[in-house]
Amino acid sequence: MSSSQCVLGIDIGTTSVKCCLVDVSTKEVVSSQKKDTCSDVPSELGTGGNKQDVPRILSALQMCVSRLPREMLRKVVRVGVCGQMHGCMLWKQGAAWEQKPDTDRFAINEVSNLYTWQDSRCTQDFLSSLPVPESHIAISSGYGCPTLLWFSKHKPEKLTRFNRAGTIHDFFVCMLCDLDHPVMSLQNAASWGFLNTETKEWNTEMLESAGLPLDFLPSVVDSGQEAGKLKAHWYGIPAGTPVLASLGDLQCSVLPLLSENTQAIINISTSAQMCFKMPQDFKPAHHPPSTPSPIEYFPFFRSYLAVAASLNGGNALAAFVRMLQQWSLDLGSSVPQSKIWQRILELGADAASESSLMVEPTLFGERHNPLQTASVANADLGNLSLGKVTRALCKGVITNMHSMMPRSMLEENGITSIIGGGSALARNPILLKELEIAYELPVSLDSRGDAAYGSALAAINAGSAD
Asked: Each residue of 231-254: pLDDT tens digit?
């Protein structure tokens, strides 16, 4: 690979899509684009569903790619893709996409909605009715295999309309490469549940007996392996360009940051994750833990990450802002969210905002405790100001993470510093301060903790290994 060559990195996130061009030689970002998708779809009342519109998401992504410099896109030698883990979508092979000869844009046709990682239709009773996976990763609502099994039991007609399934980023790779069957990286496959990560094999017998047609299961390959080649020219990228099997957004956001095994990485965006790399010889158990654990072991690149993945991060703060906005409307005043954000962060950052107020911000439950709710304690007449409540809420987000992966666990594994990333952490100095207080370790922010950039780095690394 020469210095004039580029790789394209893509991240299909929960609220936005991002793409970047990275110079192969310098590993520097030379151009990037980002766009909010505004793709949420109302779910049927009472199902606990969380759905997104696939054509809208991929339209936003294609718009981002089209805005990158065409002369640089012509130099792309490899494409890396990642996205929000756990969720799934279905499509009809042969009728799901169409790229017309006179345009770069793909039209999306016979596809379902994306059922995201936030989907909660799989109740604890339903999950308990499923077989125990032959996997070290416990199953939760929002995971691909349980969601498909839910449809098999409650809406079997949904499965009869389609014949393929994958994450939205798996679908996107299939579309680019015109694959007949989806190819899924070990990272994404593990996030679906019912996968033995050591053999890279699905628990096919128990899935089939539970009602899942095996045709819906993607093929599983090592993370960083090629899924196929670009079928046709696409926004200047030459036909035949290799495309990696899509990766997990967590792993890709960690990849640019984790240079030392003594570092822990925390990422706070919509949700929140904290992780560190396990020793190279680490092997996970063959079955999920007997009691729910906040620590999981996710496949990385030829190793594993110890991960505390909280469902409550920037989304809890965003829910607070939406509440304040609604209260303002109820009182007859319209205040834009941007102004609310600016003001609460100013008030919360003031030293006088410290108080005994305690906010447990677990509005969205946790995978190891799905029935967990949010709560407020120690309220008194002196700590209900907007600044004190904001400060307590930010502290609560960090305290919740610390309860899942405490400082003692980091010390036991030789962790001496923390690197922070993610949009919520980057924009909120209160979270950063509370992180330093809670862990009593050096904390630094690194803007390279970006999943699109990480997927590009994975593509560069794959090219170097060829």
From this structure: 999 999 999 999 999 999 999 999
For every residue of 86-102, DSSP letters joined together read: S-BEEE-TTTSEEE-TT
Residues 6+ apart with CB under 8 A from 69: 21, 31
Letter string b/e over residues 32-65, b meaning 16 or more CB atoms within 10 A of that residue's CB: bbebebebbeebeeeeebbbbbbebbbbbbbebb
Those residues whose C-beta lies under 8 Å from the C-beta of residue 128, and which sit 6 or more positions away, are none
3-class SS letters over 274-311 = EEEECCCCCCCCCCCCCCCCCEEEEECCCCEEEEEEEC
Distance of alpha carbon 122 from the chain centroid: 19
Handedness of CA 91, 92, 93, 95 (dihedral sign): negative
pLDDT digits 0-9 by tens, 257-304: 988 899 999 999 889 999 999 999 999 988 888 888 999 999 999 999
**φ/ψ bin of 46: left (φ > 0), alpha (ψ from -120 to 50), beta (otherwise):** left
Over the stretch 144-186, which tens digit does the pLDDT of each residue have? Answer: 999 999 999 999 999 999 999 999 999 999 999 999 999 999 9
H/E element, 312? none
SS3 state of residue 321: helix
Instruction: Please give the Cα distance from 146 to 125 (Å, whole number).
Output: 12
Q: What angle do CA 122, 304, 280 make, to 5 degrees?
A: 160
Question: Judging by beta carbons within 10 Å of its beta carbon (0-12, 13-18, 19+), is residue 85 exposed, middle or buried?
Answer: buried
* DSSP code for 111: B
The phi and psi torsions of 222 (rounded to 5 degrees) equal -60, 145
Task: Say how far apart CA 146 and CA 143 lie, in whole Å.
Answer: 6
Predicted model pTM: 0.88
DSSP conformation letters of 207-253: HHHTT--GGGSPEEE-TT-EEEE-SS-BTTBPTT-EEEPPEEHHHHH
Handedness of CA 14, 15, 19, 25 (dihedral sign): negative
Q: How far is CA 41 from the centre of its chain?
A: 18
